[in-house]
Amino acid sequence: MPKKPHPTPNLDQLQGGPWPSFVTGLKHLADRSEMMSDLVGQLEHSYQTKKGYWKGGTVSVFGYGGGIIPRFSEVSDQFPESREFHTLRVMPPAGMHYTTEVLRQLAEIWDRHGSGLVAFHGQSGDIMFQGCRSENIQPAFDEFNELGFDLGGAGPSVRTSMSCVGSARCEHSCFNEAHAHRQVLNNFTDDLHRPALPYKFKFKFSGCPNDCMNSIQRADMAVIGTWRDDIQIKQEEVAEFIRAKGRGYVVDNVITRCPSRCMRLDDDDTLSIDNKNCVRCMHCINVMTKALSPGKDRGVTVLVGGKRTLKIGDLFGSVIVPFMPLASDDDHEKLIDLASEIIDFWAENGLEHERCGEMIERIGLSNFLEGIGMEVDPAMVSQPRTNSFVRTDLWDEEAEKWQERQSG
Amino acid sequence: MSEEQRSPIESGVPDPFQYMHPIMRRNFGAWSWHDRPRPGVLHHVAETGEEIWTVRAGTCRQLDTDTLRKLCQIGDDFGDGHVRFTIRSNIEFMVGESAKVDPLIEKLEMEGFPVGGTGNSVSTVAHTQGWLHCDIPASDASGLVKSLMYELYDEFVSERMPNRVRLSTSCCQINCGGQADIAINIQHTKPPKINHDLVANVCERPSVVARCPVAAIRPALVNGRPSLEVDERKCICCGACYPPCPPMQINDPENSKLAIWVGGKNSNARSKPSYQKLVVAGIPNNPPRWPEAVQAVRKILNCYREDAHEWERMGEWIDRIGWSRFFSMTGFPFTRFHVDNWRAHRHGLNTSTHIRF
């Protein structure tokens, strides 16, 4: 049906080989759609000139402000059929679980309204339906929406979130990630769909300190599973592990790799742990999956302020809640309240295009905590201040607060 | 607004339980342990003794719907009809019987989906959109990843690295790809080229001025029209001004280079999470196969694989052997640009006599 395909000498070099080729997929779509044929033509043009040719714009669906990434071609005179090539960001189910049936339904809707090109998933965690004309955006969204899917975030808004597979399949999980993810995000759908914040705000939920969702790095608010009591040890499995791997392996790869040196292999091949000094890093549990597991008094640590380079340089999130339980409805309410406090304070005090972590860098963590009604805790710092340039005439009052908290 | 317009159902994040494999639903929150019978396969055992096998396969992230349907067909014929995706765009097929694992793997491999990406492998490269769909890229994402995977395929399907290796790429300095053991990112080397005829109409000038990390942009009248000018002595060529002001073109076919960063780590296992550090810059942005970037990544991986101890991530290995040794092993030059001069840069200096000779 389409006109003669554009020659693609550059893209052709990305076909073949053992790794799946996106070019093969694009060309397959180009065989059945003029839009995709011109898209392939424009991409080849980019490869030849080493320049990009998309510009943004404004496209939305009725009732929302965000969720669509508009793309208009700057070279539509050469590639007219792909002159509009917008993306719909659609939020996946928490943990990215699908049946083949629902994937086929999504594909069928997308073939009727869009290009047939889709990414599982974008870096924020959206399903990205790439390549839609302006007039097809609304009908495509309507059908996805009727199927139970909703648009993700774009622009200065709460963004689509991610949670790990967690409790669904992982023995390390310390809370119900999917539930927390949905409770929190679905409380902020207004801030997600109607961008009106200083900049983007991302939540991520990882079930344990392995942080498979990269939340400390990438999330304005990271919720990471942890535990307060002792690591659970099955000594018979420790013995079995030593029989299989050898004592030297356990010493080299478990005992001496403990960051707080809190483990000991005793003469009878039992493992003992000084749990007061365990920092919950997960390493020993990762190595000895049968013998060791997180404790039973589980909950989450919350860190705030993670983001990538722009504008002041990379920031990791830092601790603002060392531990909170996250099991009951009340616990989840508390997490949502905390998130609301943070977003409200940042919406009020953040500068335009200033991420939450950058605001904290500007005003100091203590002022931020005061703003959201929280107290300082030694678990929030890697060390106390090292310079004396600070005014401490309110020392006695602050010390009193600490004493009160300790006795309370 | 016309009355016929449909209001959205603001349903938010879909409930995953309706799509989840029944064994995962049944044993939700009650898993006991896991192991990896072979690269690409996870075996989880629940407290009840019930078991589930996960077969992980690489995808190219950007899928056409027919490839998606092919994956669904494999899931129906050889799996249990339930799949999930990982954060790195790998697809996972869950099955309740070990007998299904080998035929599933065989089918996936026959259809061109490599099985791997578990444990101490090089998993799929986290990446962005690039020339395919982004409005600000200096490079392509999918193409660079495909080029890397020609070279790294064997590392995806095996588990022979000292620990897991996570790669990312980014097509501008915003770095959507994120922290990684090895990150291959665009690094611009020249200030933006400004089309002064367009600035006044296209750009909200105060926002653009505020966006610059080094205060190098100021309002100016150019040829009698309001525009912006850049103090090129101050400019760090980061490209932050380009998204809010497209007439400040930062992308340059020759001068937008690639830089490689190593030692980023997200996990809290053993050491705290760490930022990635600059290793080499000035690599040509050389489509369609980016051979210089691919070879530099290979070189770093070879040194890591040979020299790191078991369980050491890239950054932990370098912490142990020191940067002098890292640069001598890899053969990359150490330059003045490696010495940080951004905020709090003294944290990157060696304020001790701890030196390896």
Structure, described:
The complex is a heterodimer of chains A (408) and B (357). Chain A is an alpha+beta fold. Chain A contains 14 helices and 16 strands. The termini of chain A are far apart. Chain B is of the alpha+beta class. Chain B has helices at residues 22-26, 65-77, 101-110, 142-156, 196-202, 205-211, 291-307, 314-321, 323-330, and strands at 31-38, 41-46, 51-57, 62-64, 82-85, 91-95, 167-170, 182-188, 193-194, 217-222, 225-230, 248-249, 256-262, 277-283. Chain B has a five-stranded antiparallel β-sheet, covered by helices on one side. In chain B, strands 7-8-13-14 form a four-stranded mixed β-sheet, covered by helices on one side. The chains are: A alpha+beta (408), B alpha+beta (357). At the A-B interface, helix 1, helix 2, strand 1, strand 5 and helix 3 of A face strand 1, strand 4, helix 2, strand 5 and helix 4 of B.
Strand arrangement in the largest pleated sheet of chain B: 1-2-3-6-5
Fraction of residues in H or I helices of chain B? 25-40%
Distance between the termini of chain A: 76 Å
Q: What top-tier CATH class of the largest domain in chain B fits best?
A: Alpha Beta
Shape of chain B: globular
* Sheet with most strands of chain A: 5 strands, mixed
The CATH fourth-level homologous superfamily of the largest domain in chain A:
Sulfite Reductase Hemoprotein, domain 1
> Low-confidence spans of chain B: pLDDT under 50, at least 5 residues?
none
Strand content of chain A: 5-15%
Strand-pairing-aware structural class of chain A: alpha+beta
Integer average pLDDT of chain B:
97
List the main descriptive attributes of the protein structure presented here:
heterodimer, A: 408 residues, alpha+beta, Alpha-Beta Plaits, Sulfite Reductase Hemoprotein, domain 1, five-stranded mixed beta sheet, four-stranded antiparallel beta sheet, 14 helices, 36% helix, 15% strand, B: 357 residues, 3 domains, five-stranded antiparallel beta sheet, four-stranded mixed beta sheet, 9 helices, 14 strands, 25% helix, globular
